[in-house]
Specification:
alpha/beta; single chain; flat; 16 helices; 383 residues; six-stranded mixed sheet
Length: 383
């Protein structure tokens, strides 16, 4: 039987503390968040929804002051937190509560392993498993306004109203197919990655066309990217509002050291030119003073066409396995995993797998991928 979605509004500390004590006695709770992020680096929590199988509770982050009971609940290892496509929710919890919920069960990941489709939206999942339509009219609502509209309250409640029922059905499917441990492993990885201390030192490696830059230019780009990461967080400003990556790339490539040349770089916001021009130029000058020994190594260029046959063979192998296992290939391997494997053998050494393919994925596809790579390499040597 589905629980009613009529929401219960929680904006008092004692209310929340009492409910958290009750929820900590449950095996699982449904969790979702609504937040705003259009003008900030960090998400601003606008609402926390919890479903416990009996009701839908809407917790107001703007009025609750004692967050300790909520933190304890989110870290209680005896309570599984059930969320859907939770990467952004984890950012909200990290910023708002200073914790990452665990253990968690992501129903989008679970749906993929259950053979229901890759990257399936929550409304699609509910429709698939429960034949219930969930409206998505309030997706872009202002969740910081008060009072929230009736439509917003209903929308928020529906996001957790059916989640525990969905969770139960997914558990059955995963136990039958013996894939539950795979889902638990991937969900644990989500938590571990969200808890990692952020390291900005390699941000420059993600800039488009960074591979075209020489080592000294990369040294400039590296320092500019570190500055952007730190300042975006310090000012709570989206990275691109401060300065876009192509602009940083242009500054590094041309080693710009004066205002006239800097002002000609496309797309630098006027506020950044006004407030940060001297800082940016000093970063360039300081980077140019660095000893050659501290310059980053040149980045690998995109894979050459000559690697195409190997890449194709690897993808064919995964596709064939995925079809037999009735799994989306995307849950097994990512594009960067293919590239890591291909690059590992480009200098004539033994092919190696990335860490992600060394766990439970090794027996499924990792071992086979290594054999495909080795076979392909041997065949190319005989041509």
């Amino acid at each position: 039987m589905l629980i009613p979605s009529e929401p219960i509004w929680i904006d008092q500390d004692d209310q929340l503390a009492e409910l958290c004590a009750v929820w900590r006695k449950q095996a699982a709770i449904a969790v979702d968040t609504e937040f705003m992020r259009s003008d900030t680096f960090y998400p601003i929590a606008g609402l926390l929804q919890i479903g416990d199988g009996k009701g839908c509770y809407l917790i107001d982050p703007l009025t609750i002051s004692n967050l300790a009971p909520l933190r304890e609940l989110m870290l209680d290892t005896s309570v599984t937190k059930v969320l859907h496509s939770c990467s952004e929710d984890l950012e909200v919890f990290q910023r708002w509560l200073g914790v990452v919920p665990a253990p968690l069960f992501d129903t989008q990941i679970a749906a993929a392993f259950a053979g229901l489709g890759f990257s399936l939206g929550y409304s699609g999942l509910v429709k698939n498993l429960l034949t219930i339509e969930i409206p998505k009219d309030e997706t872009r609502s202002d969740w910081l306004q008060r009072p929230l509209s009736v439509a917003q309250l209903k929308y928020a409640a529906l996001d957790v109203a059916h989640m525990l029922i969905v969770y139960g059905k997914l558990l059955q499917l995963l136990k039958t197919s013996e894939r539950l441990e795979w889902v638990k492993s991937d969900c644990a990885d989500l938590v571990a990655n969200a808890r990692k201390v952020e390291d900005y030192s390699d941000a420059y490696q993600k800039v488009g066309f960074a591979w075209k830059l020489r080592p000294q230019e990369l040294a400039i780009l590296k320092q500019l990217c570190i500055w952007r990461e730190r300042e975006a967080r310090a000012r709570d400003l989206p990275r691109n509002r401060l300065i876009k990556e192509p602009s940083l790339w242009e500054i590094a490539r041309k080693k710009i050291q004066d205002i006239p040349h800097l002002s000609k770089v496309p797309d630098i916001p006027s506020r950044t030119l006004k407030n940060d021009a001297e800082t940016i130029l000093q970063i360039v000058r300081d980077a140019l003073e660095l000893d050659e020994s501290s310059w980053p190594a040149r980045l690998e260029p995109p894979l050459a066409q000559s690697e195409g046959p190997l890449m194709k063979a690897l993808k064919n192998y995964v596709r064939e396995y995925a079809e037999q296992a009735q799994l989306p290939p995307e849950v097994l391997i990512r594009k960067k995993d293919y590239e890591y494997l291909v690059r590992s053998g480009m200098q004539g050494g033994a092919y190696q797998l990335p860490a992600r393919l060394m766990g439970w994925r090794f027996t499924l596809i990792g071992e086979g991928l290594l054999k495909v790579a080795q076979t392909q390499s041997q065949q190319s040597e005989t041509l």
